[in-house]
Amino acid sequence: MNNYLPLSIISLGILAFATLMLVIAPGIEMARPEPPAGLRPYTAEEQRGRDVYVSMGCLYCHSQQPRAPEQAPDGERGWGRPSVSADYFYDSPHQLGTMRTGPDLLNVGARLPSESWHLTHLYQPRAIFDWSIMPAYPFLFEVKAKAEEGDVVVALPPGFAPAEGVVVASQEALDLTAYLLSLDRTYPAPEDGIRDDGYRPRGDAE
Amino acid sequence: MSHETEKDARAKPTNPRKGRYVKHLIYAGGATLILAATGALLYESGLIPGLERPDQTVASGYFQAPGNDQIPDSPFGESVRRGQAIFMNTATNASDHVGNGLSCANCHLGEGRQPYSAPMWAAWGRYPQYRAKNDQINTMEDRVMGCFTFSMNAQHSVSGEPPPHGDDIYRDLQSYFYWLASGAPNNTEMEGGGFGNVPKTELGYSPERGQEVFAANCAVCHAGDGQGQQDLNGRYVFPPLWGPNSYNWGAGMARINTAAAFIQNNMPLSQPGTLTDQEAWDVAAYINSFERPKDARQGDMTIEETRQLFHDGDDIYYGQEVNGVLLGVGTPDPERPVGAPE
Amino acid sequence: MVTMGLLLALSFVVSLLALAFLIWAISNKQVAPDQHDARVIFEPGDEGHVDSGETATSRPYHFDTVRSGIDAVSTRPVAVLLIAATVWLVIGSVFGLVASLKLHWPDWLSDHAALTFGRVRTLHLNLVIYGWLSQVGIAAMIWVLPRIFHTPLRAPRLPLIGAALWNAAVLLGAIAIANGWTDGEEWLEIPWQLDLVLALAGVFFMVPLIKTTLARQVHHIYVTGWYFLAGILWFPCLFVIANLPYVHSGVEEATVNWWFAHNVLGLWLTPIGVGTAYYFIPKIIGKPVFSYAVSLIGFWGLALFYSQVGIHHLIGGPVPTWVATLSVVHSVMMFIPVIAVAINQHITVGQNLWALKESLPLRFIAFGALMYTMASFQGSIEALRSVNSVTHFTHYTVGHAHLGAYAFVTITMFGAVYHMLPRMTGRVFRWPALINAHFWLVVIGFAIYFFGLSIGGWLQGLAMLDGTRPFSESVILTKPYLEARSVGGALMTLGHLVFAFNVASILLPQRVPESVRTVPAE
Amino acid sequence: MTADRRPQRDPRHPDEHFEPYELDASIPWPLLGIAVALGVWGAATLFDTRRHEERAQVERIEDTRLATGQAVEPGHALFEASCATCHQSNGLGIRRAVPPLAGSPFVQHGPELVANIMLRGIDGPIRVNDALYDGHMPSFASVFTDVEVAELASYVAARWGENDRVLEAAEAAELRGRVSDLGSFRGGAGVAEDTGLALGDQPPFASGTLQPVAPEISALIFEGRGGQWSCASCHGDLGQGRENTPRLAGLPADYIRKQLHDFAAGRRLNESMAVVVAELTDEEKQALGAYYSGLRVPSNARPDLGGDLERGEQLAREGDWSLTVPSCFSCHGPSGFGVAPEFPPLAAQHAAYTASQLAAWAGGQRTNSSLDLMEHISSALSAADRRSVADYLASLPPVPAGTGDTLAAQGEDR
């Protein structure tokens, strides 16, 4: 190969082709003018909580894409039905994730609908799961001598509560919890839902 | 190659041997990986037949009766279905002739298919048969009539007797049995037929020991008082084992050896074979040491006469005293026949 | 559906036809190196510069870069980039180590948002990719391209401006991420506003390299040049498209994300690493590579197949089946270019194993090249649906990512840096033993890291696939392996400190007697 | 720049000025072979999987339709699946337990009344064809769509009431709206009274009294206490549950109490429940059980695990004797309504919860089943079976009223 111009053109052409195949074609296929029935937009509070979720890097340990029962027991674990592309209609940036150091969270709002549980768990995961390796987020909470009007006090099992005073959730913690509780894609999958069906049993495929 | 000048000659000469070695290594490694990947892909796409996931169902060594989805859509199939309905739900579908809370399926598990639960596919080819119990040749209809008489305690039913000879109940039940035995040999004793046997133990049997076995293994379903349990509609889920709603003294199950075999081979449900021989004998003795409806054959005879005539030498407490109580008297007759409208 | 299925088939057929055409062309000598070009590497006028017939440059395949003044021009930009890259490497690996430790000491350093795992891990990734690997890669390009083109770097000031902008953007990006300002997608966390600066800096790197290419004094472009020149075209396209704000959303954003993230590895870091190895292995050994035709297959195979791979990160996810399948098949097809590169590089090393004893830089580079083969084979196997079911979502993939980005690219670049620095400075490393120590620290550290994560991740994946085992089991059983990872990571970080010391020791003015500092020439 | 002063310690060392280049060797044949082989099976794989994958998507969408009740089965199939466990395929019911449909005046009145009873359910004594029954029929409102109600009611009325009127889906929808707040019929007398139809002599309905919930128990349920979260925060205000948080409404009080004990004793592993039960007294456990056992809530469970409902129905109703798995209903009652505290209701339980518990038994994290019955059964089931049976049970109507007290009374000797 002796010429730079052909080299560049062919290289970029190949990349353009790959972009067409991997980005544009699936993008067109998954494009949807309408959200699926059953999915609502995030409220302002939930969206703020989502921003906290993003900024804390939750996605490095938590996926948001339950797998099909033929592939993995996600449904049995309560993580929800296999997700389809339309379930992410309002999501940007996407938080699909590629790690399950912690469990999948796409339906955590349905599976663990307790705000007070989440506050405890965010303040100190090991107050509930002694084996957990999730970071604690004490900086989203405040220790006060006495709860004031409107404060949300965090329920803490003995041994995890501060020696004196009470633990109160900050607005960020409440937002984050609101976002977690909004994660609920248990409505029936839209009929035109798109997902990877490559694991379905081959059985009677003719 | 012309450029290999004297300067290159100073360098250690290229070792072509080593190069070939590495080359071969790379090819071998590459080929192995390709093979592995091909194999994996073929396996994934199901093109390797031998590697298909093994069938989950354990093929038992026993005769396999057809499944319900194989009942034909024909007048015969209709009869099979009716027979199955009677078998499963005897008190409703042979209402006039059932005087207790049982149905055929209580002892013939798996809809009459389960081995060592007196499966019907094994019984079908064994009749007509001479039975000492009534000293005559028994047809299948005769045999089922016996079931109604003793196990279903027909004496307390609305009609007070088993279905008369020629009744449709027998037609439909026999259609069902005949269909269950599709492909089974005729007049041959089949593996898994009957209830099986439990060898006698050195200690014999004892209701006292049996009480403990019962409390530990049976009471959770059949209730501490052995009266079974009903759902909220009053429908028996677990059958009563003794007392007025159970089989009468003339039933085969009232014999301790028969009950022990049934228990060991079938109970607790889902865990057959977990009781030892001794436990099976003891708990069978315990269950059969309570009063139950009187032997339907007693008529005007005394208990002792009945015992001598029908139970002599059997492993049964009929006509004996257990804990100071004479057994065989029978539970009191109901105020009105079982199942009769109020 | 049918249309999409056809597209899928079309894509594969196109790739396959392209490869077939290439092989046909090679076998018909359509693209054979011009024998004239290959033999006569000097333009007729150049020979006038050679002052004595005794020098190497009068012979074919020989060229004195020092005398021609080429290295002198490149030295400053390369030095600046190397220093910056080394600093980011050390900082980035410290963040990596902290992140690793936090996975088994979750309550350590948990009082500040900036030090939470999700941010520390992000900092690690961005600093080593953008701070270290990209800069050291560009440094290698600036060093190597003028040499193989027999012409000094054009516009040598631009890379200095580029480096300033680039490092400023990386620093600001790190501060932004630590404070929670992120674009929120893996590999693309640096806010897009700062990405603009990175892109601008990229232009300052690209322009001199392309100008140098256009002004080259040789007709034939050596294989390293293909990788480097394609890389500097591919990466900006990827980077700009993936970072476009307000364009992507939902799952489409996820496909863009993984198309980008995987192509950063495949079309940016891999060209850097393979290109570097292609230059330095024969350079150090003094022997040509095995086959021009094979290197063509390696390069175009990479371009055709690697570019369509990324979506295997979403196998079993909410993407069209055919896209996932497409990526799986193309992943497996990667065997072809990888085996091609392996033939060319390993045969050259394998025929000259003595050189590994001679040359510490070669030890790094040969090891790195071997790891390219390993990482790619592992990647192809890992993409298979059955294997992916186990490894996806586990630490196994983290081990694989490090096999590619660390054991292959980073270790190769270590070797390149150790080879370049004496030639840039005209000095020698005073403590070669430290280079050796560096090598063994990172190799042993990496081995512990890799095997820990691979075994732990595999077990983790099996536990997650078994519904009768609670999720907690998949966490608990990985803990010892995560601890092993920290041990390996600590050794690697220690190795990087040694590396930084080595770089500093040769770059800083040395107060030692002349006699020790310079080694007399032959 | 200094001159070349690089060390040359070893004379074998190559010279500094060497320039890398490529030799002119041809492509080794194994590489070509590998490329051809990969190309061939790559194409074959794509060709093979493409057909499979296109079919897979179609199948998945069909499954989705089935699970969301959008595919309507004909009346007889619906009857077999949902009514026959009690009323039997022949419509004769169960003597002394389940009234017959055949010849029943309730059915002869036509599909409106049938649909009405299906939507509301019956709790209380009822007389059919001279026999008296203690009526406990669940409400199917949360199980059937309007189309299914119409289809099924028309089928039942035509087959056993010889009434040929066909109920339209719109009428069923209208009826549903009208009766949605009325609760279940109070026995046969209630049906006669509410509809004004002639249904013969019906026994009177004796209404019981509901015990009010003690304030401290109510606080426990709705507000939580100290380091504990409230019950309702996870299990819902009405104990209806979601996903793998179980439905508690209608579970026997003694069963709930026993489970709370078992969480504390480690016979059931659930970290969150362990935190909650740590500070509960025995009295509180009993009171909580009593509270939830008395709740009657429509089902919010759906078969959403992608299981095979036919297989699930087979396991629930017949069992699989080849696996030594008896039917669920042989112990948990013919409609999964439960039997005494040892055999809790399964109907309308969330599929994810049921499946996760079967998995927990199989995996040894739950060890509190009498005689290890469930441990054995769960271990014998495959993952697909666990999902199938859980899905089928989730599709059933919730347990009708009247269980709590009756069953608690039955279980008092244990």
UniProtKB/TrEMBL annotation, chain A:
UniProt GO molecular function: electron transfer activity; heme binding; metal ion binding
Residue span(s) of domain Cytochrome c: 44-184
Listed Gene3D superfamilies: Cytochrome c-like domain (1.10.760.10)
UniProt keyword annotation of Nucleotide-binding present: no
Organism lineage string: Bacteria, Pseudomonadati, Pseudomonadota, Alphaproteobacteria, Hyphomicrobiales
Keywords from the UniProt entry: Heme, Iron, Membrane, Metal-binding, Transmembrane, Transmembrane helix
Pfam families assigned: FixO (PF02433)
Transmembrane segment boundaries: 6-25
Name the record gives this protein: Cytochrome c oxidase cbb3-type subunit 2
Automatic annotation (TrEMBL), chain B:
TM region(s), chain numbering: 21-43
Domain Cytochrome c: 205-291
InterPro entries noted in UniProt: Cyt_c-like_dom, Cyt_c-like_dom_sf, Cytochrome_c-type_DH
GO MF annotations, alphabetized: electron transfer activity; heme binding; metal ion binding
Keywords assigned by UniProt, alphabetized: Heme, Iron, Membrane, Metal-binding, Transmembrane, Transmembrane helix
PANTHER family, per the entry: BLL4482 PROTEIN-RELATED, CYTOCHROME C DOMAIN-CONTAINING PROTEIN
Name the record gives this protein: Cytochrome c
Source organism of this protein record: Pelagibacterium luteolum
Lineage: Bacteria, Pseudomonadati, Pseudomonadota, Alphaproteobacteria, Hyphomicrobiales
From TrEMBL, chain C:
Pfam family, one: COX1
Native source organism of the sequence: Pelagibacterium luteolum
Protein name, entry field: Cytochrome c oxidase cbb3-type subunit 1
Annotated InterPro entries: Cyt_c_oxase-like_su1_dom (IPR023616), Cyt_c_oxase-like_su1_sf (IPR036927), Cyt_C_Oxase_1 (IPR000883)
Transmembrane segments: 6-26, 78-103, 123-146, 158-178, 190-210, 222-246, 258-281, 293-315, 321-343, 364-381, 401-421, 433-459, 487-508
Record has ATP-binding as a keyword: no
GO MF annotation, one: heme binding
Keywords per UniProt: Electron transport, Membrane, Respiratory chain, Transmembrane, Transmembrane helix, Transport
GO terms for cellular component: membrane
Taxonomy, superkingdom: Bacteria
Domain Cytochrome oxidase subunit I profile: 258-522
GO biological process per UniProt: electron transport coupled proton transport; oxidative phosphorylation; respiratory electron transport chain
UniProtKB/TrEMBL annotation, chain D:
Key words of the record: Heme, Iron, Metal-binding
Gene3D superfamilies with a match to the protein in the record: Cytochrome c-like domain (1.10.760.10)
Cytochrome c domain sequence ranges: 70-160, 213-296, 307-397
Domain of life: Bacteria
GO molecular function, one term: metal ion binding
UniProt name for this protein: Cytochrome c553
Organism name: Pelagibacterium luteolum
